[in-house]
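User: Some background: our group keeps a shared notebook of sequences we're curious about, and every so often someone picks one and asks for a predicted structure to add to the entry. Today it's my turn. The entry only has the sequence so far, pasted here. Could you supply the structure so I can complete it?
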Amino acid sequence: MPFAAYIIYSSKTDRYYIGHAENASVRLERDHNGGRNKSTKAGIPWEHRWIKWFETRAEAMAMERGIKARRSRTYIEDLIRSQASST
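Assistant: Of course. Here's the predicted structure to add to the notebook entry:
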C-alpha cells in the first residue's frame, strides 16, 4: 500500500505541519482535526495543502525529514505552489 508525505495548514494559527501516513485523509480527520494530535490541536481546522505518494513508508518518512530539515516556510510554500501549478 502506498504512503504519503503531506503538508497541512491551519488558517487559525497560520502554521504548517509536515507529516507522513498510510492514509493521509484519515490521519487529517481523525488525528489532526479530531484533536488527537497534541502538536496540531490548537490549529483546528487543518486542511491539506500538499501531498506526495511513495511506494514505501521509508520513502515518505525521508521526504518528511527532508522538508523538516530545511526549516523554511518559503520552501514549504514553494512545494505547495509547484504542485498546484503541475495539476
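Suggested note for the entry: The first helix runs from residue 24 to 32. Residues 3-86 form a domain with the GIY-YIG endonuclease fold (CATH 3.40.1440.10).
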